[in-house]
Write a structure and sequence with these properties.
19% helix, alpha+beta, Aminopeptidase, six-stranded mixed sheet, elongated, Jelly Rolls, 2 domains, 10 helices
């Protein structure tokens, strides 16, 4: 007889596997092992008495013990779970029986977390009388839609902080003067540039590389932002916290680029890089860049802008908005685009020519935000 492990919490392994098997559909919307509802999660939830079976379907229902904030990403606050609120997660099937069980909590303020890209789950929350209040985006590029339902005994509707217009934007072409990319192309041709392969896990094929005009070291080959690097790198570069952003010798070789940057309505420019993506299926897989706490659209945060310098019609840039909707764009040469890198995004170059973008991080302000909301 197989010895029972402590994590099983006294439940037979076959039973835990059977319950976890009910979550195959749920788990198909996850991008990380941490969000999947597996046998160890089943055991823990059963032990806490939060996981319930309702006529063959499963649901996790807990009560908030303390007040806590819910953020979309970073410090973008959606709302607050108050002590005593009911929190509904991990629904295996959206059945009438589950709906009836949820309605037994009509006398409580309830939150419901569902996958944004699972249309049936989103509709189920609405059918149960919940109102959408925002989304939570994980560092693994997963998107939860968050719903709230007031208690039917409440005298007032709970106020939820509305999400600012600029916060809702995932990717957008900005209203900006036409950029003559042929001039930048000539400036690139006049200099022999050796691009540095990007360090990220989502550059698995090594198709993505970059070079710095402005960065955290004087060398153009240094393309990283120290705060984004892992613990080992930081230990090996113990002085990284004292490094500040500075121009590399390359910046003065691109006078037209500097003319363009002067027209961007910002008080501060952080990094400036040329980013290259190899042809023939070069790919950056789906990811977010939430490791940088300074990215955002509020005053003082950093917004990322893209200017395609060399591209092709088969170059696809995909971004997922806060509702889980996919946006596939072909950014054309000479355009200025904003990308919220806190939200899931990916890029694939199916063309025959290397794609090169000028990528600039700028400090946000009202004028910058108007670049995103003009025309909404």
């Amino acid at each position: 007889m197989t010895e029972m492990k402590p994590w099983q919490k006294g439940y037979e392994l076959d039973y835990l596997k059977e319950v976890a098997g009910q979550y195959d559909k749920f788990n198909s919307y996850t991008d990380s092992p941490f969000a999947q509802f597996k046998k160890n999660n089943v055991a823990e939830s059963l032990d806490k008495k939060t996981l319930k079976e309702i006529n063959g379907a499963w649901i996790n229902i807990a009560e908030a013990k303390v007040r806590s904030k819910i953020t979309m990403h970073g410090d973008t606050v959606i709302g607050y779970k108050e002590k005593g609120d009911i929190v509904i997660t991990n629904i295996s099937e959206h059945t009438d029986s589950i709906k009836e069980h949820i309605n037994t909590y009509n006398n409580k303020n309830c939150w419901m977390f569902v996958w944004s890209e699972w249309d049936d789950a989103v509709q189920f929350a609405i059918d149960c009388g919940f109102r959408y209040v925002g989304s939570k985006i994980t560092t693994f590029a997963e998107i939860y839609s968050i719903f709230f339902r007031d208690s039917n005994t409440s005298l007032e509707t709970r106020q939820i902080t509305p999400i600012d217009g600029a916060e809702r934007v995932s990717i957008k072409k900005c209203v900006f003067d036409t950029i003559d990319t042929s001039i930048i192309q000539k400036e690139l041709q006049n200099i022999q540039l050796e691009y540095t392969n990007h360090y990220s896990n989502y550059n698995k094929k090594g198709a993505w590389s970059a070079i710095s005009l402005r960065g955290y070291r004087p060398e153009p080959s240094f393309i990283a932002k120290p705060i984004e690097m892992n613990k080992k790198w930081k230990e090996e570069n113990s002085e990284w916290e004292s490094w500040t952003c500075e121009d590399t010798p390359l910046r003065k070789e691109f006078p037209y680029v500097n003319e363009i940057l002067e027209k961007i309505p910002t008080n501060k420019i952080e990094r400036i890089r040329f980013m290259s993506l190899a042809p023939g299926g070069g790919e950056l897989s789906r990811h977010t860049d939430q490791v940088d706490p300074f990215i955002g659209v509020s005053d003082g945060k950093l917004m990322r802008l893209h200017i395609p310098v060399i591209t092709n019609p088969k170059m696809e840039f995909t971004s997922w908005d806060m509702y889980g909707k996919k946006h596939i764009e072909n950014m054309k040469e000479g355009e200025l685009w904003y990308l919220d890198i806190r939200k899931p995004h990916m890029a694939v170059n199916n063309g025959d020519e290397t794609r090169i973008h000028l990528v600039v991080d700028i400090e946000a302000n009202d004028e910058c935000r108007r670049l995103l909301t003009t025309g909404e």
